[in-house]
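your task:
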Amino acid sequence: MKKLIFAIVAIMLTTTLLFACKGKTDKKESEGPKTESSSETSDEVEANSHSGLLSDRDIYYHPDTVLPNNPTLHDMVDLANGYAIMRAVYCDAELWFRFGTVVNTAIKKIKTDVIGDPDIREAAKQFVKEMVNVLPNDTNEWNENDERRWEEVSNAIETYAMKMAQRYALSHYGEITQEGAMEYLDILQFIPTYDDAIVKMRHKPSKENADFLVLKAKEAKSFDVKCLFTLEYAHQQQETDPHPSIAMMEALMKSGNYSRYLPDVWRTWRVLKQIGQSPSRDGVIHNYKYNKMRFHCLNAIMRHLISHPQDIYAINTFCYLATYDNIVRYNEFPYGNSAMVEKMKLFPEIKKE
């Protein structure tokens, strides 16, 4: 068993930390290292290469509106960019371990000056420097099972993530409770029949149920309700590829409207896209595209926060989405990328059937 890498990926309701386990649990079938080191500058290049380098691209969150002089909102931007840097560097590091791709040149191009907070900006600089020093420039040094380098990567990520988690803990912005969060997200306040009827449709997929959910989503006056019925529709017609709910979810996220369920829409959209394109550990992972859509959602939440700066539960929604991990190659399953694990979390009925 190879050492597991743990990256802190989210700030939880009670300001504790959520860890995502990226386990190196299998040895790659006899395949030598790849040496792609060119900058990925378009979706077309990414689609024709498994490399998918991120660090030399515009992986940063740019608010689409002028922010007022509110320290909390500026903290949210720094939080989003701090984690965007961590995700990009980690995913590029995976390319070294999996394929022998030299990634140092790309990682050196990380723009830490997008972070306003001087302490976190300095922590980001040190993190990037450490990662560049850890990862070799020579493909002859490639070894997927290099425990020492995995350890150094893990330690660098953990140190950087801990500094961000301490700086941006939710307790700095207001009081939040588990009970309050559950009430805030309670679906029954929007769909009273959810537990008795709607959710049960997941176990009885049919054209009739699918048509009903699509109709309810289209007729919904509330954006929260529209999101919820679209999410339920994603559980129907699982044999269809690409799933017809993907386009519906894209429209919701691009609309610019705020919903407390936007993180669920984004996660479901992303996993259906990735599973449909490549569940393989060696396949193309379109994290760059997924994160651009993540930023659409963050901008909707940010606009809500500008109007409701004391909404601690919306702040939590922003933090949750901003810190959620990329799809990664190494995870707790011995085969495939982490979209496989994500789908099991989002579609629990699969495990029961």
The two ends are 30 Å apart (CA to CA). The longest strand covers residues 4-11. Residues 1-45 have pLDDT under 50 and may be disordered.
